[in-house]
Amino acid sequence: MIAHAVEAPHRPEDAHEGLSKQSEISNAMIIDDLDASSNIRNAWRLCSSNQVEEVKLVLLLIPIWLCSLMFFAIISQLHTYFIKQGSMMIRPIGPHFQLPPASLQVPVGTMIIIAIPIYDQILVPTVRKFTGHPTGITVLQRIGVGLFLSTVNMVVSALVETKRVSVAREYNLLDNPKAIVPMSVWWLLPQYLIMGLSNTFTVIGLQELFYDQMPDAMRSLGAAAYISIVGVGNLASTFIISAVQAITRKSGEKWLGDNLNRAHLDYFYWVLAGLSALSLGVYVWIAMGFVYKKERC
Known about the structure:
The chain is mainly alpha-helical. It has helices spanning 12-20, 33-37, 49-67, 69-75, 81-87, 106-131, 139-170, 189-212, 219-250, 265-288, 293-296; strands at 6-7, 30-31, 89-90, 181-184.
């Protein structure tokens, strides 16, 4: 038996009125004359209310998935241009050791390790007193905070890169792509720390959202959907870089050339900040209308 199925009205005007009140997905529950005359249920034409609700749950998560792509496109800079910046700055630790540029990723993990217990043990109980929510803030709010921090991170990165290029100009190093700019690599530390903090909010929030809000029988798909954001986000970063290169090449000055001292990496970071802010705005609009699974029951 099909739960909550309704028979289609017999009068054409009533049928039109009834269908206008249903979403396209909910129409899958309506029994029309063809379904009523058949003794066999066609799963491609007629669905139970549970099946319809499960499809709605999945579709609700797709916009969140799309809005999270810019977050991971920005994270991909951690493994590319952030390292390139660090390789062109002063990196000594003591008289005989140079800090490897890639090792600056260590503060990202360190920040995550420090921030998670602070979030769980201090922030959640404190915010809970004001919001009354068991977790202090909702999962979508947690993701949104991380997306906002990701945007801030690109602004900070752009400002630091502008400073680095100005120092290179001051010491006449613009045309020397292998020169070490007399500026400490620790100037990059804030953007690494903000990256770790944004991960604490968004990455964990997305994992929780895609697991908890998926239909019970599709939770493994939810985990896969989260992981796919990482890959597609990195692909989006590649697409953005290619687009920026193609557009700026027409003006005769590539923003992302081999010589970062002559390139405009700071402009690229501003582009990422703008795209991230736009994505955040769309995310907030979507999140305001999001209905959690428990609230739909």
